[in-house]
């Protein structure tokens, strides 16, 4: 049982189970996230480089695919590294869904 106290309003939140995941869950999830991020970035770099270097595929219909690859590359390189904080996000959502007991 974990007790979290808020000293500003003298409220106490009581959880029935610990607020952390097992180490092996975090390790497997972290390795999976790294692999997915690496594959996302490298695959989109290949698409962008092939579009830039090969003139024969610069058709109007392929500009859409290049645009998707650029946006997916930005997602993979900017927001995917924050997936390591997902356990903290899930715990905070769990805290909000349970409410505060007075």
What does this structure look like?
- This protein has one domain (2-98).
- The protein has three helices and two strands; from the N terminus they run ββααα.
- The protein has helices at residues 23-53, 60-79, 86-98; strands spanning 2-6, 11-15.
- The chain has a two-stranded antiparallel sheet.
- Strand 1 and strand 2 form a beta hairpin.
- It starts with a strand and ends with a helix.
- 2% of the residues are buried.
Gist of the model:
By secondary structure, the protein is mainly alpha-helical. Helix content is 63%, strand content 10%.
Helix-strand makeup class: mainly alpha
Major sheet: arrangement of strands: 1-2
Q: How many angstroms does the end-to-end distance come to?
A: 17 Å
Low-confidence stretches: none
Sheet-strand content, in percent, reads: 5-15%
Number of helices: 3
Shape: elongated
